Structures are given as C-alpha cells and as structure tokens.
Amino acid sequence: MRRRHLRVSAPLAVLVAVSMLATPPVAAAPQNLCDGPFCASVEITTFDAGAPTQPTTAAGQPVNLNLHVTDTSSTVATDPARWLAEVIVRPGTSSAKTMAVADPASLPLGSYLAGSSATAASCAPGLDGSGYATSCPAGYGTGHVQLTPIIPGSPTIAPFSFGVQSVTTGLNGVVAANLSIWIPGTTLLFPITATTPITFNPATANAGPKLELSVKLDLQPPPYGSSPASLNDLTLTLNGLVSEAATGPVSPAVPFLRHTLVCTDVTSSVQVNARGTQSVLAPVTQTINGCPTAPQLTSVAPVPGQPLAVTFAATPPVAAVPGRTASIEWVFGDGAKALTGATTTHTYPTSNAVLALATVVDSAGVRSTTVQVRIAGSRLRVKQAAGNRITGELADQDTGQGVAGQQVDAYACPSRNAPLSQCKPLGTGVTRTSGSYRIRIPEVTKKVTVVVAYAGTASKSATQPARFGAQRSLTVLPQPDITLKVSEKRVHPGATVRLSGKVTPGKKGKTVRLQGFIRGAWRSIGKATVSQQGTYAASYVVRVPKQPKVKVRAFLPGTAATFEATSPVKVIRIQR
C-alpha cells in the first residue's frame, strides 16, 4: 500500500496549502517541513476497498480506512497548548472512483466495528499498556494527559496508552470511538474508559462527505479530577463506515454494501488542524492494492445440441493476496449470476443477444476489473425445397444480416423435441455470404421429422462475440416421381398436343396440373386425373402468339403425406 505523509509548520501552513492543492502529490517521498516547535503529521493509509465490513483473522486481512495522526512536536510533552486538536478527512473529492461515508444514521445502533463482542472485549492494555496495539482491531495509540490533583498542587503531564475497543453508533447517527485508557502509575487495577466523537457531514451537491475526529478529551483518573488529554499518536480503523462510492457525484454509500469495482486509484483529501492554529488541505492519492487480475477468457461456447446453453471458460482465477482464494463472478446478462471457478454453464431463457460480465472476486470481497462477454442471437430459417433438398437462411437475430461461413446440419429425429444424440445425421451445408444454405439429404419414402441445427459460434476473445446456436424442425415428406411426354414437339399455332405421363407411386384420383411458361410465368394450360394404373393424359391446344416455343411441365400439388412433385420440362416449338 502507498502512504502519503503531511508535515507542516504553522508559519508555512498557508503556503503549503496553496502549493499542494495546485500540484498533485508525486511518488517521491515528501520533504519534511517540520522544522519548528508547532508541528503535526497526519497520514491516511491506503485502504483495500474490497475489504469485508467486519475484520477477520484471515491472513492478509485488509482494512477499510486507516487514519494515523501523530503530533511530532518535540515540546508536546510539556506544553498542552501544542497538542493536536482536530483531524478532518474529506473522502470523495475525485470525479473518478471515490470513497464515500456511509450515513451513520442508517447504521445499526451499537457497536459495529470491532469485529465481534469477543474481539472488542479482548482489547486490553496488558501489564504496561503495550498490549493495545495487538489486541484492539478498531485502533490504538498514545497520548499525554495533564493531571491536576484533587488536593491543590502543581499539575503534571504524563504519557498514556489507549485502545479503541469499538466504534458505536447512537441515535441520530452519533458516532463515537470508545477508548480504553491506561495511565502508568495512576491506573492501578482497571483501565479508564472514555469516548471521543467522530462527526459526520454527508455529501452535498457540491462537496463530498467529511469526517471530523476530535483528539482532545477529558479524563477522570483517580485520584485526580477532570484532566485534559490529547491523543497525540492515533491509529483508527473505520471499517464499514467508509467505503467505495459510485462514479461521478458522491453520495453517502449504503452501509455494509459494496457498490462499484475497486481496482483503481482513489484520490481523497486530508485537512489537518494543528493545535487549532492553522489548517492545511492537501490531496492524497491512494493506490488500491491486492486486486486480482481480470479474468482471462479461454472460450465462450454454445453447448452442442442445446442452443440456449453456453459454457464460459477462463484461466483459473488467482487471488493477489496470500491466504485468500478467488472465484469468478459470472453475471450472465439475463438477471442470473453465479460465483464459480474457472468454468460454468448457463442456460438462457431465449436466444436474444446478451452482454455477460466476468469478474474475479477473492475471499475478502476484492474485485478485479470486469471483462465483457457479448453473445449474439441467431435466426434460422428452413424449408423443404425438394424431396432430397433442404434450404434456408442463417441471420443475426437483431440486424437480420446473413451470417456467412457457418456449418448447418440436418438430422432425422424421432420427434421434434428429441435431443440430437437420439437423431441420425442426414447432411451438412455451409452458409454463403448472404447467409443462405443448401443441404442435400437422402430421399425419404415416408414422412420424417428433420431437425436443422446450427451449433453456434465460440469465441476466445472479449472483443469478438460468441453466437447462440439455433434449431428448427420440419416434417420432410416423400416426393412422388412424375413423368411427362408430349405427342408432338413441332406444331403450328392452334394444333392440339397430347400431354401424358405417370405418377410413381400411383396416386389414383389425384389431379395433375399442366403448366406452360407463357409471358414470363408458369400458367395453367390444363389438368388431368391420375388413373388406377398411375397414368394421366390431357389435350393442350397450342395458342401462343408471337412465341417461337413454349415450355410445358406437369405439377402434382403436395398433400399431408407427400411433398409436391414437378416433372422435367418439355419444349414444344411453334412453326409459323
């Protein structure tokens, strides 16, 4: 984690404020400007914004926000007038990702920070006060106290140590740090308890939220009366009160909820009031550490035979902090999401185009940047063009544009809803530039259910969309064979020509329609009935003005049991 320190002397406060506001902090360590007796140091530690809202004992556990306040004056121990008075933190001054302060009024009443009641109860000074640093998860530090005896006498200044047992929320959002204080030589059996307020100012339309921490308080150590004390060295963790906020104008965050991705630098500001004399405002850049690497997609592929099912695969996710584990959060784009390992399969309700999201999330809640996964929809059209030929078109469902170079397969299936594993392959076609395709299948002798399937398109890149598969079923009918003969191939206008043929298998009583290609279209020139032997015959009077020839054919309409059939075309030439 990166830290920024701010040390200023009171006479230089105004000059430093102007220069630091105008020039962003750089990576190099700042100069130590603390060359006089009035000296203060404030440090805001980078927080891992993906931290859970309650501390745990897990390895590498991050903190949410850590303030470190130190009075560096060499005369602080002998002059209470120089004790540090107030620290102000203004999160959320960046127009990018920001920190936000959860409205304490919306937090639950009581202790919410120390991890648990057991952890808070364990915040103890030890034999000499040094145990606070290791036993108090909410914070700890040292200070000085001016002791005035009840019996009139000279006041003395003594050092003390303290631990922050918990941070509590009271009515109307009043927040206070609850302290356990140990004054060597004075606190004999039990620590002294005290509180110091944390004032919260919510965000407005023109300013981000603000925290003010008072580090002056009054103690009542026996055998003394009320004595002023200063928390000259303070580390305070505000976990759950300060979190990340949405992009853009900041607003109080919902407590205990994370809102946005966190793997980015955050800019905040720290304002220091050194013993009530001067204020310095300076930007502080915080680098979010411990962020896992964004998912590396290996494949986004439709499941064969299941057009609405898609398998997402990525390299196994790895947490950036030792001791944590990582998973991938797949947000599928249809309202569902899953937290899994490197692979997952999801079935969509429809084949509409969707935008899925993949994010690595570790066991502490820290999130990587998100990878977008686009899945396009497919529209498949199909029809029986002949007894042994199926044609159709594959197009994008949204744009209607044909999808070229894709394989389309035909299967004979026991039913329309049968899985392809129960079907027999019949043939394959590849779509042309226009998206049209043609599949030649074996002739059928009885009607059969055929499923035409497009398996979809897999993708290995977030920049190239995958594509849903598609299936359409149709009933393929057997096609009769019909022949055609003409009695005369050369005739004069007005001559009569006999048209005859045979239908196999025989279709007794069916009507054969005879057609001639006249004036650019196939037009009816007669009809005939199929006999018991499957034959038919009819006469045609040739009346085709201004045409040197006429094409004729026989057409048998389709039925519920058979596909339509057309005879080979014959030509009758007309002599003038």
Automatic annotation (TrEMBL):
Residues spanning the signal sequence: 1-28
Gene Ontology terms describing biological process: carbohydrate metabolic process
InterPro entries: Ig-like_fold, PKD_dom, PKD_dom_sf
Annotated keywords: Signal
Domain of life: Bacteria
Segments forming domain PKD: 323-375
Protein name: PKD domain-containing protein
Species: Nocardioides islandensis
Lineage: Bacteria, Bacillati, Actinomycetota, Actinomycetes, Propionibacteriales
